[in-house]
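User: Before I run my own analysis I want an independent prediction to cross-check against. Here's the chain; please return only the structure tokens and, at the end, one sentence I can use as a sanity check.
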Amino acid sequence: MKVIELALTKGKGLAALLLSAGLLISLTAEARPPDLRPPHAKRAKQDESPFASTVSYGVLSDYADNRTPRAYTHALSGSLSYEFKPQWTVSGSVSLATTTVGGQIYKDDHQAYDETFEPSAGVSLSYKQMFWSMSSWKVFLGGEALMDEASRREGYKGILSAGTGVGLAFSNIGYMMGHMLSVSGMMNTFEYSASKTANPDYFYTYAFSNTVKFYKQLRLAYTFVLKATHYLDSFVSYAHLNKYGVSYSWDSLSASLTYENGGFTDEGIVDFWYLNQHRRIYRLTASYTF
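Assistant: Structure tokens:
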């Protein structure tokens, strides 16, 4: 899945840094955040396959950008996981994204068409332990190669991540609460970007998620993400994001619509409920699991 990373550059306010990843929420720079939801089906049968795979297609647009015609980012992704021991899972993901404007692939004057496609690939290892019936906690390690043209120009080579999360299920009222904390390191070639600002080297991220099941497989969700970014010149910036979503699933097929907005500060003061006017993203995603 394409992840839009909020990165703050010293003296520049908010900069939208597109980093590919296999993350859900997590508007952070980790390779893949833990899935804090209860399993779609508890592995109760001994003969259930240890393999699981998902194919997803998503399209998003930032409505804070008033230019016409509107730009849309399209992403096709796939993931494969293998539970090689009880509670232990290794997974890999690949994705390919591109941006269209007016129904055509967008490129600037210095790009070839093959450079307009943004590939990414990541791997992760996780351990998950169930408790209280449907609740769980998880720890994970992950890595991601940054192969898109923008990352190559800035000297970004990859991201390494580690984190932990807990998901608390209240099945009697159809409510799920998740908390996730992670740290991610960016592997850079250059200390400074092309804009002469210092590149980021590591991130701390906290995510608080809430999901309510209303009718059959209809769910409403809200997630809050708080992120601190450290740069190679020792500057530290803060950003946060609010994400609202509705989803529905039919057996192996699911669809979701989300709205995301975020806030930032250059002074190190975080306003949790500030609604950022520089980023208003709508995202439509369809996934098939088999």
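Sanity check: The chain has one helix and 15 strands.
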